[in-house]
């Protein structure tokens, strides 16, 4: 499709034609891609695998989605130290009846299975592990991708042993896991810090930037005051100030949270967040879309809080309607019209006279009989 409309893209056919010009040669393949069609990625992957010559893949900025699949074709794969790789499940759009939906799900599962094979051949990881990484939409830095076997090295890391060494207890960057695990751990640290401050255990103590952070359950180690800003005790009010004052401490807290997220699976916070979103979705068809979006992302709230907010909004709209209606009546003068008996027509008046006469005659006859 891209070729038909002249859109700049690395399509399989154009890629094969370009590759023919380098037949039998060792080549470098630079990748900076957000991905695209899975079958197109498969075509480029196969072309590189068939190439007679060494294929060295260098990930420049990103190898995301289908772009990461192409990277797996390299005999050697390297990533920029500021690059990123992401793997996730394939997805599609489909319309039709139930059997069409079921068929589409079966096709997606087969496509995922083929992608897992490409990742497994490169990394040597188990299929179940790779499948879980894809389920979680895993984002990896260069060091993490190297530790997990997706790349063989980091570009420009010659002579920098720390960069070249695989990281232990590596963590794949799942957005929700980082958001929930890291924020919860830093919040817990701040609570403990505040408690120590209130009890006076931190009085007169300062932490030097190069000081190793205290382990869990261990009291902070006092340091000379001249290693901090002046002779004042730093007052931490939020996570940004904490990161600026004690970057190593925050790094350790976040690392512990990430390790916990890796070993224990989905965090409790992530589970709660999923349930919150699910509950909102269940009532969203009865509530204005702008309120639903606000409750999900801008000002997070529970489904119960959203329902209450919707009721308040509807009530406010109703009151506004009444106020507007009253204002219109006042402006028209209709409110000044007094209630009363509507004037009778001539026929009604004649009927009333006849009824009065009939009643009078009946009364006179009754009184005469009584005498």
Strand content bin: 5-15%
| Number of DSSP-assigned strands | 6
List low-confidence stretches. Answer: 175-182, 201-233
Rg estimate, integer Å: 37 Å
Alpha plus pi helix count: 14
Distance between the termini: 114 Å
Structural class label: alpha/beta
Mean pLDDT: 74
What is the molecular shape?
Answer: elongated
The run of helices and strands is HEHEHEEHHEHEHHHHHHHH
**Biggest sheet statistics:** 6 strands, mixed
Could you estimate the helical fraction of the residues in percent?
A: 40-55%
Structure in a nutshell:
The protein is α/β, with parallel strands linked by helices. It has helices at residues 12-20, 38-50, 66-71, 98-123, 127-135, 142-147, 161-164, 175-198, 239-245, 247-264, 268-283, 289-298, 303-332, 346-370; strands at 27-33, 55-64, 76-79, 84-87, 138-140, 153-154.
Overview of the structural elements:
With 371 residues, the protein is of the alpha/beta class. Helix content is 55%, strand content 8%. The protein contains 14 helices and six strands. Strand 2, helix 3 and strand 3 form a beta-alpha-beta unit. Helix 8 crosses helix 10 and helix 11 runs parallel beside helix 13. The longest helix is centred in the C-terminal third of the chain and has 30 residues. The radius of gyration is 37 Å and the shape is elongated. The N and C termini lie far apart (114 Å).
Which SSEs are present, and which pair or pack?
Layout: H1 12-20, E1 27-33, H2 38-50, E2 55-64, H3 66-71, E3 76-79, E4 84-87, H4 98-123, H5 127-135, E5 138-140, H6 142-147, E6 153-154, H7 161-164, H8 175-198, H9 239-245, H10 247-264, H11 268-283, H12 289-298, H13 303-332, H14 346-370
Parallel strand pairs: 1-2, 2-3, 2-4, 3-6
Antiparallel strand pairs: 4-5
Helix pairs in contact: 1-2, 8-10, 9-10, 11-13
